[in-house]
Structure formats: structure tokens, C-alpha cells
């Protein structure tokens, strides 16, 4: 290369006053840009003070495009008339490169040989993207000799086939030539020779001459296919963590695995599970022949023609087949075309396939992976490559095992959830009333919908409890939480309510005792939190004689009532705290209902939803209850359709009751003076009433019962005393007095003068009991009516 000399004149102040053409060519700066400026601005680094006194040395300058230029300079002082220095004339000449000794005689240097024989494809292009040099690896990559490519344009399809030209690479070559900036370019695509996909990473940099001008572009190509596929596998595995197991459904989990890997990892995938996985049974012992249930499959070809087994069907796999072997050995198996086991499997598959749908000849590679979770084999997944030319590798097998492991755990979670849900639902249904008892006070209809969310079955319940005096208790409740624990707690609370109802406690007192029970249950749970066992409850008692409804609430939504011909409204109830919280008393509310009124008791799952306003849901409930003339079952269905969202997030219990009343012809009442002489008069009045009702056959027993109960009331009770006969589904005798002391059944000794009255009543009647009232107590006895 021709050497260039430069001269610069610098005055005593360090300002440039002269600039030669050689200086412009060496630094790239024109004279008009430099003259008049400080010479120190040209330096690439500070010059030590000692060097300022020297007349020669090496100086590093900064080229106009930014790169560093080192020059050996000499300075000649310019003297004035008085002999004083008036500045310097600085001259510079680049050091010529030292030639390798005897280079011409020895041929290419060792550096040239290393580059030409490098395993990395390297080449050079001029500024018009024409080949100027290629090493051997680059020639092999392009499939041409260096002589054929030198001077040819990279995008010339006469030299290089069109499918081997990367337009992105061409654009980046032009960018480097234009800007002089090195770039990295990555590309991915199929090779025209074998059809496999490769990833390439290209390093491109500008090549400059001694003056810093870009004269050509160098390029080095690196095959990054392994790194590319490793990143793809890792990305697929990371995506599987979020894409597989989004629901607790066994079949949907298998479908998510298929959707994830087709076509990114396989051309066809099938997922088969053992039968017991789809049910609620425990794992079964392995058999010689493996029977699997096809739950999901997918293909890159529309219609999935590769599938032999239809979705939902079963298939039997013999011990020598890949699925059976993979499950028996508990490890993944890889098969390729040409291997005996693989070819036999394809032939056996084609033999069972309907005519016209055999595997295409392209099927060449398979990975069979057992679905194992927590040490238990659940099924098998089969991955096939048909249209994709590259076969499965050991890295692919490891990825398939990771994907199958993830899917297996999610399938097992879904199976366990389904089993737990089935168990909880069976437990809950066993604890709910199966057949409501017949009685005359109310007509009943009910609905119970278990929760369909991931949280599981809740603890909602309802009950209808016959009470003495033809009265009936209506109860709905909701235990906090979901799952078997909530269902078990619900069963305990429902049993407690029935026990307390049998004692005939008023609603507010019953809830007080129930609140104590929940607190005790929490204490039994090793000091557990009461809130974890909390519950809400609404307990109501309806008397068909007085048509009086008495109810109390423990944190439960108020019931709705629809009078005959009226509009539905909510009953204002004094809301007490939820059960287990304590601190506030429970208060009873009374309301007299016209005959034929419709009562609606429900749990909060009917009206509470995070996407809905409670007031709006309650209004929809009241509107749905206004169905004059409709049956109770029809009203139940209308309410659920109008109020519930498409997928309720909680259990729902709905209890509807249409009230009836016992008319004057079914009830007879007498006030009894506290005089033993009136016992006979009262007994006679009762006998006459039975005759009027056509119950002469029952008169003898009823006379004895009336006589004993009235006598006890006069002897041991306090006024006022009242006798009431009720003709309902049974004949009921009630004697009330003003004393709160309850009688107790005991066995009288031979020498006792009394104490046999209640024993006689208990033996003569079907059942008997007592209940506290606001004014005292009531002793009652029931006798079945003769069959008509």
C-alpha cells in the first residue's frame, strides 16, 4: 500500500495554522474543520508532559470516524526574527508493516492457513456484496468452489440456488458496508438438501484499509442449531408448567398436553390411560395384557388420520408393543424406522387400520413415555414424527419424559380431586334428608346443587322436622369451607339440630345451643380456629293451628315470603352472629302467615357471587317467586334459572314451603278449672268430640290419656290449664298449664300411691313428650288414626 506523508503547522499557542492533504487522508479531517482549532483536540489520549519537550515520538490520534490512528511524528521548530520559537512544523509517516521473513518464498503464512482451514465458514465480500474470498468450510457450506464464487454477487441465483439465499443476510451485508459497524445476525430455516431445520449465527464486521476506510466486509458463520433446539426445548418445558393442568379434569389435562406438543414437538400424539384412572377406584394390579382408554390425540393433519383408536374407546396392548413395554419397564422408549420393533409396530398398526388410512411412509421416529405420578403408572403417551424429517434424539426423549411427568402429576391431581369430590358428594347426600316426612302443616319442594368449582363440595344443608302439635321446623344452613371436612361438620350440625328440635326448643334457644356446639367442636380440633368451623343457620317453626311462623337467624340470609295473591318480600329477621362467633344473643322473630303463603329458605350460594350484586340477585329471587298457580317444583326450577349464574361458585340449597292451616273442624280446645271434679267433665267433652269426628274406636284410649294428663296438670301444675285435641295425620292430645316444671317418666314401686300416669300414657300412645311455652309447658301425646 502506498505510504502517505502528512504535515501540520502549529503556532506557539498550540493552534493549528496549516493542514496538508496528507493529514486529511490520514485523519479524515478537512482543513476547514481543523485550522484555527487546538492541536490537542486531535489526540486520542493525553500526552505526558515529558513528551512535550521531545521532538519525535509516537502519537495516537482519533480518526474522524472514531477509530485510533498511531503515527510516528517529528517536530521542527519555526524561529522568529529574534530567534524565539514561533511554533512547529509537525510531519508524520505511518510505520510500514513488517513483512514476514521470506513470505514470498514460503507461500501462505501460518495465519492464512489457519483461517483457510478453519472449521468455521468464513468469507469476505466487497462493498457490492460480491465474493472476494472464502475458506474451505464456506465453500463446502455453499456447495461451490472458491474460484466459481469469487467475484459473484451473493444474491445471484445462477451461482447459488434461490432457496440457499438469505435475504436477511444480504440486507445486513449492505448495512455493514454502509455504516462500518459490526453486526450479529441469526437465522433459522430448512436446508434444501436434507429438509432439516438449522439455526445459524453470523458475525459480520467491516474490513478497513490503513487509512480507516471500509474496503470490504468479513463474515463468519456458526451453526447454532443445538443451542437453538435447546432453547426451544426449555421454552416448551416452561410453557408446559402453565399450559398443562389448568383444570382439575383428567381428559382436559391430556388434551392440553396434545395441544402443547403438536406440531412443535411431534406430528402425532396419543394419550391413553388405564380404566381405573378415569373412575374413583384405587390402582389395580398389573395384567399381562394392558387395556388402555384413549382420552386424547392430535395430529398436524386435519382429521387425525394416524389414530387407530377412536377417542373414548379402549384398546388392548400385547406385552411386546411399545406402550406395554414402556409401562412395564417404567421408562421412555425411542424407536426409529429400520429397527425391528418399530417396523413390527407400524405393520401391526396398519393391519388394524381401515383400508385407505395406513401410516404414510414418512413415519420414521417415535418416543413412548409412561405417565407416572407418585410412583404409580397411570397410562402412556406416544409421540410420532412423520412430516418432520429430523428423528428424535436423546435430548428429545428427556424432554418427552419431562412433559409426560408434568402431565402425569396433573392427571393424578385431577383423579384425586375427582375421587375426593365423589366421596364428599356421596357423604353429603347421605347426610341430607332423602325423603321428607309427610305432614299437613306445609307442602315442600327443594333443590340442592353441589359446587362445581375447584374448591370442592361445601357444607350446605336443609331439613324439614315434624314437631309436636302438627307443627313443623324448617332449617337451612351453610358450613364455612369446602371438602370432606365441611361435609362432615355439616352432618354433625344437622344431627344436633334434629336432636335439639326433638327437645322442642324455641328457635332462638336452639341456635344458642348450636352455637355452643360449634365452639366445642373447634376446641376439639387441637385448639383450632373457631372461624374455620363457623357456620350460618336459619331455623323456623310454623304452627298450622295459629298460622304463626317463628324464626331466628345465625348470620344467615333472610327468607322470602309470598302471601296468596301478593308480592314476594324478604322477612325482616334480627340477624345474629354466625355460629361459633358468639358475643351476641339470638333473637326470635314472629309473623302470622295467611294460609297458602309461600316460604323460600336458601343458602348464600344462591345470591352471593363475586361478579354479581347481592341486592340485584335478591330482587331476581323475589321476582322468580311470583308465579301464581305454579307448582312448587316449577317455582324451584324458575328460581334457579333466574338467579344462578351459569357456573355457581358455591353450593346451593333451596327449600320452598307452602303453608296450610288446620281449620276449626280439626281443633277442639277447652279451658279446665283447677278442680279435680272437672276431670270427668273434661273427659266427657273429649269423648263427645271424638264421636263427632267419627273416632269412637279411639275414645277408650283417649279418655284414659285425657284423664291422666288433666289430673297431673291440676295436681302438679298451675293455672291456666287447657286441653286441646287436634285431628291431623294423627290424633293429638295436648294439656297445657302455667308451670314450667317438666314431668319425667319413671317406674313406680309397688308401695307407691302414684307415679303410674305417664307410664300408662307412654304405653297406650304412639309417642308423647313435653315442650316449654311462654306461659308454662305443654304435655302432648299422639295416637295414630285408623287406616281408612
Q: What fraction strand?
A: 25-35%
Gross morphology:
elongated
Please bin the fraction of helical residues: 25-40%
Oligomer: single chain
In DSSP terms (H or I, runs of 4 or more residues), the helix count works out at 19
State mean pLDDT (0 to 100 scale). Answer: 82
**Strand line-up in the sheet with most strands:** 13-12-11-16-15-14
Low-confidence spans: 96-105, 748-754
- Give the number of DSSP strands: 32
Largest sheet: 6 strands, antiparallel
Distance between the termini: 131 Å
Structural class of the secondary elements?
alpha+beta
Rg over CA atoms, rounded to whole Å, is: 49 Å
Description:
By secondary structure, this protein is of the alpha+beta class. It has 19 helices and 32 strands. The strands form six sheets. Strands 13-12-11-16-15-14 form a six-stranded antiparallel beta sheet, with helices on both faces. Strands 18, 19, 20, 21, 24 and 25 form a six-stranded mixed beta sheet that branches. Strands 2-1-5-4-3 form a five-stranded antiparallel beta sheet. Helix 9 runs antiparallel to helix 12 (394-431) and helix 12 (394-431) packs parallel to helix 13. The longest helix has 38 residues, at 394-431. It is elongated and about 160 Å long. The protein starts with 5 loop residues before the first strand and ends with a strand. Residues 96-105 and 748-754 have low confidence and may be disordered.
Amino acid at each position: 500500500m502506498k505510504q502517505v506523508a502528512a504535515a501540520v503547522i502549529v503556532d506557539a499557542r498550540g493552534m493549528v495554522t496549516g493542514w496538508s492533504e496528507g493529514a486529511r487522508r490520514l485523519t479524515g479531517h478537512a482543513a476547514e474543520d481543523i485550522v484555527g482549532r487546538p492541536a490537542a483536540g486531535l489526540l486520542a489520549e493525553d500526552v505526558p508532559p515529558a513528551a512535550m519537550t521531545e521532538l519525535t515520538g509516537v502519537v495516537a490520534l482519533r480518526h474522524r470516524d472514531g477509530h485510533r490512528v498511531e503515527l510516528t511524528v517529528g517536530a521542527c521548530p519555526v524561529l522568529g526574527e529574534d530567534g524565539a520559537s514561533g511554533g512547529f512544523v509537525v510531519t508524520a509517516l505511518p510505520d510500514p508493516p513488517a513483512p514476514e521473513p521470506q513470505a514470498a518464498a514460503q507461500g501462505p503464512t501460518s495465519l492464512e492457513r489457519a483461517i483457510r482451514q478453519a472449521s468455521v465458514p468464513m468469507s469476505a465480500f466487497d462493498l457490492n456484496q460480491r465474493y472476494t474470498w472464502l475458506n474451505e468450510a464456506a465453500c463446502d457450506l455453499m456447495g461451490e468452489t472458491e474460484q466459481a464464487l469469487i467475484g459473484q454477487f451473493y444474491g445471484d441465483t445462477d451461482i447459488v440456488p434461490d432457496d440457499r439465499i438469505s435475504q436477511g443476510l444480504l440486507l445486513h451485508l449492505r448495512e455493514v458496508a454502509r455504516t462500518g459497524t459490526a453486526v450479529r445476525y441469526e437465522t433459522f430455516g430448512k436446508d434444501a438438501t436434507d429438509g432439516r431445520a438449522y439455526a445459524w449465527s453470523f458475525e459480520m464486521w467491516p474490513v478497513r484499509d490503513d487509512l480507516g476506510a471500509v474496503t470490504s466486509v468479513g463474515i463468519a458463520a456458526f451453526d447454532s442449531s443445538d443451542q437453538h433446539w435447546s432453547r426451544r426445548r426449555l421454552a416448551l418445558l416452561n410453557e408446559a408448567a402453565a399450559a398443562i393442568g389448568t383444570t382439575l379434569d383428567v381428559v382436559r389435562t391430556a388434551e392440553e398436553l396434545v395441544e402443547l406438543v403438536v406440531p412443535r414437538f411431534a406430528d402425532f400424539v396419543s394419550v391413553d390411560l388405564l380404566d381405573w384412572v378415569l373412575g374413583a377406584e384405587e390402582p389395580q394390579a398389573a395384567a399381562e395384557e394392558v387395556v388402555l382408554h384413549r382420552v386424547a390425540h392430535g395430529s398436524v393433519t386435519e382429521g387425525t388420520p394416524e389414530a387407530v383408536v377412536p377417542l373414548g374407546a379402549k384398546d388392548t396392548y400385547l406385552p411386546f408393543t411399545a406402550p406395554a413395554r414402556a409401562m412395564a419397564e417404567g421408562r421412555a422408549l425411542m424407536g426409529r424406522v429400520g429397527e425391528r420393533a418399530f417396523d413390527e409396530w407400524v405393520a401391526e398398526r396398519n393391519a388394524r387400520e381401515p383400508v385407505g388410512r395406513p401410516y404414510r411412509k414418512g413415519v420414521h421416529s417415535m418416543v413412548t413415555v409412561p405417565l407416572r405420578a407418585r410412583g404409580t403408572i397411570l397410562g402412556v403417551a406416544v409421540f410420532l414424527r412423520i412430516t418432520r424429517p429430523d428423528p428424535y434424539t436423546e435430548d428429545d426423549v428427556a424432554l418427552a419424559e419431562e412433559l409426560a411427568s408434568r402431565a402425569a402429576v396433573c392427571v393424578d391431581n385431577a383423579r384425586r380431586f375427582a375421587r375426593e369430590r365423589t366421596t364428599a358428594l356421596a357423604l353429603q347426600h347421605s347426610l341430607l334428608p332423602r325423603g321428607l316426612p309427610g305432614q299437613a302443616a306445609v307442602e315442600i319442594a327443594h333443590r340442592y346443587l353441589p359446587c362445581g368449582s375447584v374448591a370442592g363440595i361445601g357444607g350446605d344443608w336443609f331439613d324439614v322436622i315434624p314437631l309436636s302439635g302438627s307443627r313443623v321446623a324448617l332449617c337451612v344452613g351453610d358450613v364455612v369451607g369446602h371438602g370432606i371436612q365441611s361435609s362432615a361438620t355439616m352432618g354433625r350440625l344437622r344431627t344436633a339440630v334434629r336432636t335439639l328440635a326433638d327437645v322442642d326448643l324455641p328457635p332462638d334457644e336452639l341456635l344458642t345451643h348450636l352455637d355452643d356446639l360449634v365452639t366445642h367442636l373447634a376446641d376439639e380440633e387441637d385448639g383450632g380456629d373457631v372461624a374455620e368451623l363457623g357456620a350460618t343457620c336459619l331455623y323456623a317453626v310454623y304452627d298450622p293451628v295459629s298460622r304463626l311462623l317463628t324464626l331466628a337467624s345465625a348470620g344467615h340470609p333472610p327468607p322470602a315470603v309470598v302471601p296468596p295473591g301478593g308480592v314476594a318480600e324478604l322477612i325482616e329477621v334480627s340477624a345474629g352472629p354466625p355460629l361459633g362467633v358468639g358475643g351476641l344473643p339470638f333473637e326470635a322473630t314472629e309473623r302470622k302467615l295467611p294460609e297458602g303463603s309461600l316460604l323460600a329458605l336458601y343458602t348464600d350460594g344462591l345470591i352471593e357471587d363475586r361478579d354479581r350484586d347481592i341486592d340485584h340477585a335478591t330482587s331476581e329471587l323475589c321476582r322468580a317467586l311470583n308465579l301464581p298457580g305454579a307448582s312448587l317444583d316449577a317455582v324451584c326450577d324458575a328460581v334457579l334459572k333466574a338467579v344462578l349464574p351459569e357456573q355457581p361458585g358455591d353450593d346451593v340449597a333451596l327449600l320452598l314451603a307452602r303453608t296450610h292451616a288446620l281449620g276449626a273442624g280439626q281443633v277442639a280446645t277447652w279451658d279446665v278449672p283447677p278442680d279435680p271434679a272437672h276431670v270427668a267433665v273434661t273427659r266427657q267433652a273429649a269423648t263427645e268430640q271424638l264421636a263427632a269426628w267419627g273416632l269412637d274406636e279411639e275414645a277408650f284410649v283417649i279418655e284414659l290419656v285425657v284423664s291422666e294428663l288433666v289430673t297431673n296438670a291440676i295436681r302438679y301444675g298451675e293455672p291456666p290449664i287447657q286441653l286441646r285435641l287436634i285431628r291431623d295425620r294423627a290424633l293429638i292430645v295436648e294439656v297445657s298449664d302455667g308451670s314450667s316444671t317438666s314431668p319425667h317418666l319413671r317406674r313406680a314401686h309397688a308401695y307407691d300411691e302414684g307415679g303410674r300416669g305417664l307410664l300408662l300414657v307412654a304405653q297406650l300412645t304412639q309417642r308423647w313428650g313435653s315442650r316449654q311455652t311462654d306461659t308454662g309447658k305443654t304435655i302432648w301425646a299422639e295416637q295414630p288414626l285408623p287406616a281408612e
